[in-house]
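Contributing new records

If you add data, match the layout below exactly. Sequence lines come first and carry their own label; structure lines follow with theirs. Keep one chain per record. Anything else will be rejected by the validation script.
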Amino acid sequence: MEVIETEAWVLHRGEPAGGAGHLVREPFTFAGLGVDEVLAEPLYGCWEGNMDHAVRRVPVDVCALRGEDRVVLGNAGVVQIVATGRAVTTVREGDVAIVFCNGVPDAHGYPTAILGYDAPGTMGVLARRIKLAQHQVIPVPPGPPAAMAAWAAFSLRYVTAWANWQVAWGCWQTQMRGVPADEVFVCGWGGGVSLAELTLARAMGCRTAMIASTPARLALLRSLGIEAIDRRTFAPDAFEDDFLAALRGWTGGRGVSIFVDNLGAHYRSTLKALGRQGVITTSGWKRGMNFSTVRAMECIARHLHVFTHYARYAEGQAAVAFALEHGWTPALDGERRYAWDAIPQLASDYAAGTIDSYFPIYAIHGPV
């Protein structure tokens, strides 16, 4: 069987004693193409929270979880197709495509494991060449570097946002169908997924707000027409009180209709901020995995809790189609793109929380 060799930033299995890992730049080999697979050269990738989790081995050692000694991470990116197996119909040689990181779908197409993370036998975009199944790529128009970098950011975060919003909005509608969109208050905190979801809500006519804490992020939110709530104004010894007061003021005392909480650090406060018939929705976590709720109070308030995990292929296609029609992609003009040699620095900067951008972009074959 043909073997393909490339260069990659590789994560090795951890020691039994535990501890964080690091990425090693080294040769990496994989088997040649199957009939329904494609060979691709990544142009740009977007550093994701799950990559940070994997490198730090929190909550698990993904190499051990997959039963592999070495793993190539990276489940958000844009690639150029180099070759295709004879049964491939989704793309052609020379196409540009986003990575669709559904690694192991269930019987209905929803992902149970993610490519380039916990899906065994898969590789991510932290390599010069990668092999993907034909339903792990969705074609997009070619364009200049800024546009290609934006598609890299889009591939995981905007597709996740699209799929999560469809469920959250549908749940809201089951109880509140007669409420006009301009009376629906959608708030979020978290990162790029939350931001993408709020821009969707705003496009539908909802009132939107997001909590952030850096001048650059607050300015970005205002430029997008999203109410920017500065969390630095919340006193450390009265964080929840100040947070709730800010949202009561913004909603006129009605409470948040749909709260996109992909942060998880203040779950109890998020629930308190919800209005009656409110929806709390998440598609991931950053801090905290286990949360307790008072079931009786949630029932009385008729709160709906939504949990989703990435998307089905048709949802990814729908998200791309909407983006092309409405210009729904992140604006990355002027933002830093990390070079291939600087990947370890990117990992370090992300872990340290020193990256201001919602979409940390790195170049593989594309220009910095």
